[in-house]
Amino acid sequence: MTKNPLSFIPKPVLKYLLAMLAATGIISVLARPRVNPYLGKSLQSIIPKDREAITVEDLRKLNRQQLVGIFHQLVSPEVSEMKGEYRATLLDSGNAVNRFLSALFLYFTWGAWRHKAFEPLSERHGHGYNTFLTTLPRVPENVFLAGAASLFGLVKAAFVSSSPQRMVRMMCNRTFIGPSRFDRRTSFHLVYSDYNSFYTSTMRDEVRKVNDTLFLGLGTLTITGGTRNIFPFVLMGPPDPWVGPDEGYPEDR
């Protein structure tokens, strides 16, 4: 009989994690945005600058609806130009529930999110991973195991000196060029279902190019409403060199 990978988590903690995940998913769907007045607006009407002059600080000043409006005016990067580790950060996610989810899963569960990395494998597809800063000796990909490990790490840190921070490379994805789920125009897609377990497996991102060193992304998770509840993020170059995920890809093992 296969051992339940969550069996070591105390039942009250497991029930709490499951209830919290279900509740935040329902609330996020209920908190989805209304009709976006910025759809169809030109990029310059939202940010009165040439594309090459736009900076990450310009994007930080915008709300989610403005960011989505800008995304619709951008074009997809080529797979071949997305190579290396790009610094990454979240932008306005629209509501308090999404901000809570972002902090919980991107800055607590696995550690502090730092990069999205890409490697082209052909003109149309490639693969990638994410990086996180953590003090844990091992970071499970599974969200429940990772959450339990982080809670244990916090308790341990209260009694003993914390370990030094280290970078982990994990949460792999496959990438490809294809029609957008938002406007059917071309986007650079990141799909996590091939390499991850629930709930990370429900995550999908799309990326478009602002300029040579700045890329705007829209992230979604099926469990939090899919394309009705968008988490914008930005990727910043020039990228650091590609290293590869810590445990490699299943097909390479």
Compressed to H and E, one letter per element, the order equals: HHHHEHEEHEEEEE
CATH classification class: Mainly Beta
Question: What share of residues is helical?
Answer: 25-40%
CATH topology title: Lipocalin
The strands making up the biggest β-sheet line up spatially as 1-2-3-4-5-6-7-8
Number of strands: 8
Q: Mean pLDDT, as a whole number?
A: 86
CATH architecture: Beta Barrel
Poorly predicted regions are none
Spatial gap, N to C terminus: 25 Å
The rough form would be described as globular
Return the structural class: alpha+beta
Please give the largest β-sheet: 8 strands, antiparallel, barrel
Rg over CA atoms, rounded to whole Å, is 19 Å
CATH superfamily: GXWXG domain
Write the layout of secondary structure elements.
Blueprint: H1 11-30, H2 43-46, H3 56-60, H4 64-71, E1 84-90, H5 96-109, E2 112-120, E3 125-134, H6 143-157, E4 166-179, E5 186-191, E6 203-211, E7 214-221, E8 231-240
Antiparallel strand pairs: 1-2, 1-8, 2-3, 3-4, 4-5, 5-6, 6-7, 7-8
Characterization of this structure:
This protein has 253 residues and is α+β, with helices and mostly antiparallel strands. It has one domain: GXWXG domain (Lipocalin, Beta Barrel), CATH 2.40.128. The chain has six helices and eight strands, in the order ααααβαββαβββββ. An eight-stranded antiparallel β-barrel has the order 1-2-3-4-5-6-7-8. β6 (203-211) and β7 form a beta hairpin.
